[in-house]
Amino acid sequence: MSKRFNVWLLILAAIMASRFIGMALFPFADTTEPRYAEIARLMAETGDWITPWFEPGVPFWGKPPLSFWAQAAAIKVFGVSEFSLRFPSWLATLAMVWLVWRLARQLWSVQVAQWSSLVFATMALTYISAGAVMTDAFLALGTTLTLASFCLVMMGEGGRWRWLFFIGLVIGLLSKGPLALVLVGIPIVLWLLLSWREAVNNLRRLPWLRGTLMTAVLVCPWYILAELKTPGFLDYFIIGEHIRRFLDPGWAGDLYGSAHDQPKGMIWMFWLWASFPWGIVALLSLALAWFRGKRHGIVSSTLLSPGVSFLLVSALAPMLFFTLAGNTLWTYILPSLPFTAILIGRWVSECKPFWLSSLRGGLVAFVPVLLTGFVCVAVLGWTPLKTEKELVTYYQQIREADDSPLIYLDDLPFSARFYSGGTALEVTRNGLDNFPHVGAFEHLYVAVPKKWSGEKVADLLPSARKVMENKRYQLLVIDGFRRDQQSVSETKGVRSNDI
Hints:
Protein name: Glycosyltransferase
GO molecular function: mannosyltransferase activity; pentosyltransferase activity
Mean pLDDT: 87
Strand content: 5-15%
Organism: Marinobacter psychrophilus
Radius of gyration: 26 Å
Structural class: alpha/beta
GO cellular component, one term: plasma membrane
Subcellular location: Cell membrane
């Protein structure tokens, strides 16, 4: 093993290992991570591996279960923690880093492969999603495996890659659904149009009939069982999530949140954020080369090289598909980044611009250092986070056997659900008046918005005292709750009689 290879491997290992800091120390902040983490926790707790549950009694029809399976399995192995729930995404990202390395090495050289993997691992969205409880890393793994396998088979590779093409489809269909077929279909069709003569004979190398049958056997049983167990799943997931959400920017049918209404074409701006800092640097360099009169070289190297043209259409596919959609998030860019990284990695490895040669080491370190620093600052409490971990932990430490569950007035954050193990309650103001009928408690613990004034708190809970607060909420406690509630009820009765 060469010295250069050793250095590259050590740097890559340090980058991937640095993500462990955030995975272990950074709390789940509302809303995405704790929402998916709670779904996985419920799956592990109930043992229901068919239907993910949004909360007890409410099925989660928004996503297939592959990511939840992985996260629930991690809970079974490592216990409930931020690290265990984030670890499956880290493994999925590590697999994508290897696929990037393997494809770039096949297309060009080991040096290009090394830089491509470094570029991919240090893009902003890659680094963040590697340690986040989301479904996107599994979708991107599926699409990357399918497209990388397709490219390798078209270049003459055989054996396992012929079947990994279909395994990638299985991963995509079980992590995000039919969207995976679209994201791999667009680049394959576009590339065939560009390179029809070279590719038409190579298509026979893939076992289309047996591979499709294998995909159906591995995917369809879960979809059938999910519909049988909770009727209505297929209509909501296939029609609602994949058609109505795409066509209607303000889709009101979302059962689990709100639509992410964005201006059409915003997906291209998301690409700049997701690929930061490499995408911006590459575009600036490309624009500079274009204005220097190298247009012909850029166009010919892209369109005349089958490998480069396939990478380009694979990198552009998510943006092309979501350009006219208003319901978008920046995480939708992740399937584009492995192929973007190989294109940039080839350019970086050649180091034709002198300024890039001196900057590329700093670009590799930029995102890992920046985000690791942010994690450290947040853990030290210098940056308030939208998480209920501290408040829930405080409540768990001081509560006694005869005390009430933790109550959030009107709105229960997902992070409170997760960190309380599903015991925190959401109660309305009217429900709070009737809460004594549920049981008798020595102390009542209620979290109300931090912005509430003392007068507003006193009007609702006259004898409440504040014991702590975080960025969004203040935790109130009523001592001798039964006596206090009785006096409040009597007072309200007197006032109503007076009226």
